[in-house]
Design a protein that fits this description.
Oligomer: single chain
Radius of gyration: 20 Å
Largest sheet: none
Shape: globular
Order of helices and strands: HHHHHHHHHH
Number of strands: 0
Distance between the termini: 35 Å
Strand content: under 5%
Structural class: mainly alpha
Mean pLDDT: 83
């Protein structure tokens, strides 16, 4: 569990470092200009870290499934070689997905406008600026995204369906609450990641207000990675004591 948490922390740092430093520089210098090459690089790296985040949450769901449903075989099943293999598979699939999005944008021959209504380069926003017919590009992008995201969500739902059925068979209430607390942090992280991500794409599809889209993007790219350390560490008794001391001093 801590192996995947450490990788998730690294991915969250990369996730937030792809967009926020550029946003701070833009605010400080009052300049909102980014070159085409920098835009493509930011988009590619951002997509890579987003995909890695989703893949790691899926792998961690499987880890919780093994821990709760097969506790006696946990150390045998989740051995270090398998953990490294799952990490490499997640990385290469995420890299492939990010390069597919990059390739889709590179195929665009020209842009009718150079004003992106957000603070970072998002593939869907760049496609909207194209001066040619982008129906094929949109179909390919959403098809790849649906397969990739659908696989992740299916894996998480399968793991938690088996976890729930296993927990309900536990006779004691204490055992059930202990099992629920084992996967509570991960479930909160999953809801936060996919909930804000869904909000971003729904807001961009339904609302035409750049301000609302930017607010939704800030929640997805800044707030989610910032809250993950608190979600996963507050179960630690030392962190809880430190938080209580801090709150007492603040009050």
């Amino acid at each position: 569990m801590y192996f995947f948490l450490s990788i998730l922390s690294f991915v969250d740092m990369g996730f937030i470092s792809t967009t926020v430093p550029m946003m701070i520089v833009n605010i400080h210098t009052h300049s909102r200009v980014i070159s085409y090459v920098s835009c493509l690089s930011q988009m590619s790296i951002f997509t890579l870290f987003v995909c890695m985040d989703g893949s790691l949450l899926t792998v961690m769901a499987y880890d919780r499934f093994v821990a709760i449903c097969h506790p006696l075989h946990y150390t045998v099943i989740m051995n270090p070689p398998l953990c490294c293999f799952l990490l490499l598979v997640s990385f290469f699939i995420s890299l492939l997905d990010s390069q597919v999005h990059n390739w889709i944008v590179i195929q665009l021959p020209c842009f009718k406008d150079v004003d992106i209504s957000n603070f970072f380069c998002d593939p869907s926003l760049l496609i909207k600026l194209a001066c040619s017919d982008t129906s094929t590009n949109n179909i390919v992008m959403y098809f790849v995204g649906a397969i990739y995201g659908g696989t992740q969500v299916s894996g998480i739902l399968f793991s938690y369906t088996r976890i729930l059925s296993s927990i309900l068979r536990v006779p004691s209430s204490g055992g059930r609450s202990k099992a629920f607390s084992t996967c509570g942090s991960h479930l909160a992280g999953v809801c936060l990641f996919y909930g804000t991500g869904l909000g971003v794409y729904l807001s961009s599809a339904v609302s035409h207000s750049p301000r609302k889209n930017a607010v939704a993007s800030v929640l997805y790219t800044v707030v989610t990675p910032m809250l993950n350390p608190f979600i996963y560490s507050l179960r630690n008794s030392d962190i809880q004591r430190a938080m209580r001391r801090f709150l007492r001093k603040s009050v």
